[in-house]
Specification:
Distance between the termini: 44 Å
Oligomer: single chain
Largest sheet: 5 strands, mixed
CATH class: Alpha Beta
CATH architecture: 2-Layer Sandwich
Number of strands: 5
Structural class: alpha/beta
Number of domains: 1
Length: about 200
């Protein structure tokens, strides 16, 4: 069973990102402050949930959270500062957008660039341990998926409505055949999936 948050002395926001390993689109991050008595039976790491479960949990989180915010860093910024720094920046932007300033941050992962004047702890696989990080993972994932589905209508051959920008065989083949879209990350290598057949 997941705990509500990492510590109970200070008002805490859980933070997570989505889209680090993608070839296209922004990286999204969310920051969520949950009430102490928050209960959502299915809530866990977003990667372990179905699309339908994530969407229904998003509605509950956005309705019941003390505060929540989602932010993004686009592909051009990712190319300029690299994906690790872009992930940190997206989380900073999400924290900055919160209507209530947290006193503590719990971060999913093993690295983070400290946010000014707010202490933090990095927690490996935190989205499977703490509800506030799991909630942030749900919001980051669902908001990003929504964005990728929207832009996929303009660039249908990359099949973003299905792969959400991740390097599937179909996505890589389409990028090699049609070239890169304005949403692709130019610093990410798109390898030819056919090469694996000859190695």
């Amino acid at each position: 069973m997941l705990l509500n948050c990492y510590q109970n002395e200070l008002l805490e926001a859980g933070c997570d990102e989505a889209g680090r390993g993608c070839l296209a689109g922004p990286v999204f991050a969310a920051a969520v402050i949950l009430p102490p008595d928050f209960i959502a039976g299915e809530l866990t790491d977003s990667k372990k949930l179905t699309h339908k479960q994530r969407c229904s949990l998003r509605l509950i989180i956005e309705k019941e959270a003390v505060a929540w915010a989602v932010a993004e860093v686009d592909n051009h910024e990712i190319d300029n500062i690299n994906i690790l720094n872009a992930s940190f920046l997206a989380m900073h932007r999400a924290v900055q957008k919160l209507t209530i300033k947290p006193q503590y941050l719990s971060i999913d992962g093993n690295r983070f660039k400290a946010y000014p004047d707010i202490p933090h702890t990095c927690i490996v696989k935190g989205d499977g341990k703490y509800l506030n990080i799991a909630a942030a993972s749900i919001l980051a994932k669902t908001h990003r998926d929504e964005f990728m589905e929207k832009i996929s209508m303009e660039y249908p051959h990359y099949q973003w409505q299905q792969n959400k920008g991740y390097p599937t065989v179909a996505h890589r083949m389409a990028a090699l055949e049609h070239g890169l879209s304005p949403f692709h990350r130019k610093t990410f290598t798109i390898s030819n999936p056919q090469l694996a057949l000859f190695s």
